[in-house]
Specification:
The protein is mostly helical. Helix content is about 80%, strand content about 0%. It folds into 4 domains: about 1-45; about 45-60 and about 70-405, Na+/H+ antiporter like fold (Up-down Bundle), CATH 1.20.1530; about 415-475; about 490-529, no CATH class. It has helices at about 1-40, 50-60, 70-90, 90-95, 100-125, 130-140, 145-155, 160-180, 195-220, 230-250, 255-270, 275-305, 305-310, 315-345, 350-355, 365-370, 380-405, 415-440, 450-475, 480-505, 515-529. The protein is globular, with a radius of gyration of 26 Å. The protein starts with a helix and ends with a helix.
Length: about 525
Amino acid sequence: MLIEFTVAAIAKEASIKTNLEQFLVVLSVSLTVATASRIFSWFRAIPYTLLLVIVGLGLSFIDVRLVNLSPELILEIFLPPLLFEAAWNIRWRELKANLVPVVLFAIVGVIISVLGTALALSQFSALSLPTALLVGACLSATDPVSVVALFRELGASKRLTTIMEGESLFNDGVAVVAFVLLVGIPLGIDEFSLPGTVARFLAVVGIGMGIGGLIGFGISYLTQRFDLPLVEQSLTLVSAYGTYLITEELGGSGVIGVVTVGAILGNFGSRIGMNPRTRLLVSEFWDFLAFFVNSIVFLLIGDQIQFASLGDSLGLIAIAILAVLGTRLVGIFGLGALSNWVSNSDLNYREQTILWWGGLRGSVAIALALSVPVVLSDRQEIIDIVFGVVLFTLLVQGLSTQFLLEKLDLIGDQPLRQEYSELLARRTALKRVLDYLKTLDDAPEVDPEFYRYEQELVKGQLASLEETIAQQQRQYPQLRSLDMEQLRERLLDIEADTYAEMIRAGRLSKDLSPLLQQILAAASEPEAN
């Protein structure tokens, strides 16, 4: 008995060591690719996530397998931080302004994608309708990480980035819920009933939003009572994983729960419970974690491709690609027109075109396909179809998005505006430094000659910045509109920060809706008319 226990312990220890070695290899390859994409100029045109997929494909082609990709690993370990980081960074003010198209694309768009893809596969292939519905659910989740990164790098409009990112955030949750509701049908466990399916959908989403809201607001008010940056950072990490696990355990959507808690903490909790330094620290932590997780996930996607199996399913993959592109075309342009009519969102055809082409599929689609029960006879076909479509969207659509942005003239002067914004930010920072140096006049512990010398250095740099800003304004008069936009943003931030200070001081029991935003919006309507 003792010998058996010892052998089992040694085997377990060897397994742990092997897993750690595999993880180290994956991490080393991922970081090498990510670093090379920043160092070598010929790689910079390709988003590093796509480079990781290409490297993974190369390793797969020579039959070098880094690690077994488990769906539970993605769903329970990788997915929460990716969703939380995106929800933390999305600004409610910007999302609210584009809420109608985001909700339409994320909910109605998913329904169109699931049904359209399923009908195409069931009509033009030997797949049964229940199996085709599962494929449609897997492929309805967009994952445009590389496209959003490209938008930011090239300076595409903030609205386009917000819509793309907002849609991806919410449709991941809707797609996962749709998959969970449909997975029992081809197994004969469940029968499709529209009223029953809608009721289950609302229950799963409601539980996710409820638990996410409860945890999000709870942590927001908890962090008001202390100022411990590392503790507050740890709480955000615990909230991401804790919300996912608790919500799944209670029968809700963990994805919806994580998105809800991330949006609340990023837009409400970080204002009322964190000072600016802590907020920056937490944001930098989540930026690193998202980079870290994305580096691993996209490499493993390429690494897990089975070329022989994909070759046997090329016909199914081709049908699925056309169906995915067709249903997204109908969804984006049809729902875009509806959004323009309902909310005056003014999404033009160029923006709709890039939203259509930029709807890539990625880690969520792969995880859902791999989580199909082994007992389902068509499981391998589902996996092959999803992997094939994901590869097409990442390598064909992903690599051609920059070309399309340039052809549609959606970059415009955004890089120039970004450069100008950075100049304005530096000017503001140096003015604050000067204001602080002025307070040292009466500080006996500081050598007057030293701080005057520092003051002159800052003044010289500030004068140089002022000259550069003035030159930019003379050369590009349209940049003056950015000054007015930033002033409005600053006024809105002052109002929100004031309410947050009053909540922290106990003078307010809840956050107030912004009044200034309504005033500015009302004042701009007559100007537009």
